[in-house]
Design a protein that fits this description.
Number of helices: 3
Structural class: alpha/beta
Low-confidence stretches: 112-118
Radius of gyration: 16 Å
Mean pLDDT: 90
Strand order of the largest sheet: 1-2-3-5
Shape: globular
Oligomer: single chain
């Protein structure tokens, strides 16, 4: 069995620096505790979640960890240029020395919409 951490980079105090620092410390802690992996969520337009660029965060975490597998959960492809995604994914994989797992999605949860007819 593998154990992992799902990182949403919650930001309840609207202090991005603290949110990133706290989540980084947590990822480093779970590595020392023997966890196998950490997955970073990508969220846009949400002041309570501070991870709009999970690939940049994963590159940073690659430098802060040594054996933990790192994964994107998930890169939202409709918001991205495909060539840039390919280059960024290759870069994170190189920086992590092959510890990167690439997860993709078409988008996040949708909110209910009200249709108004004229």
């Amino acid at each position: 069995m593998r154990t992992g951490l799902f990182c949403t980079y919650e930001n309840p105090h609207h202090d991005y620096r603290s949110a990133y620092a706290e989540q980084t410390k947590l990822v480093q802690l779970v590595e020392t505790l023997g966890f196998d992996e950490a997955w970073v969520a990508e969220h846009h337009f949400n002041p309570n979640a501070s991870s709009p660029s999970c690939l940049a965060v994963l590159a940073f975490l690659a430098a802060k960890t040594t054996r933990l597998r790192l994964g994107s959960a998930a890169v939202l492809l409709p918001f991205r240029n495909p060539i840039q995604v390919a280059e960024d994914v290759a870069t994170v994989d190189i920086l992590s020395e092959g510890r990167f797992d690439f997860g993709i999605a078409k988008g996040g949860p949708s909110r209910s919409r009200t249709n108004i007819s004229a």
